[in-house]
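1st attempt posting a full record on here, be nice pls
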Amino acid sequence: MSGKFGATIARSALLTGAILGMVAATPALADPIDVMTSVHVGNITQPTTPEEHSLIQFRIANAAEAACGSDMRSLPEYRYAVRQSQCFRDSYATAMEQLSSRWGGGAGR
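the predicted structure (as tokens):
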């Protein structure tokens, strides 16, 4: 092959080879990656008032947000996205269940 047509095919073949090489070198993105993260929220005593219960929920939500990769310094849009994620929902629910079982059901009201 000669001329412009041959050069176009050669570039296309090179580009296709590069793309296929990248795909082959990329790990499967469909496989979930499990990561355990712990966030210390301090000693939490069983709430006795609705205000204390709200404060505990706030602290647990902030800890779940931090465990999922966001915090108070993050952009509001990013924080919102993290709080809508499955990671946040699972982390928050797990923490509240653990507190509820520790206190005999008092955390989940």
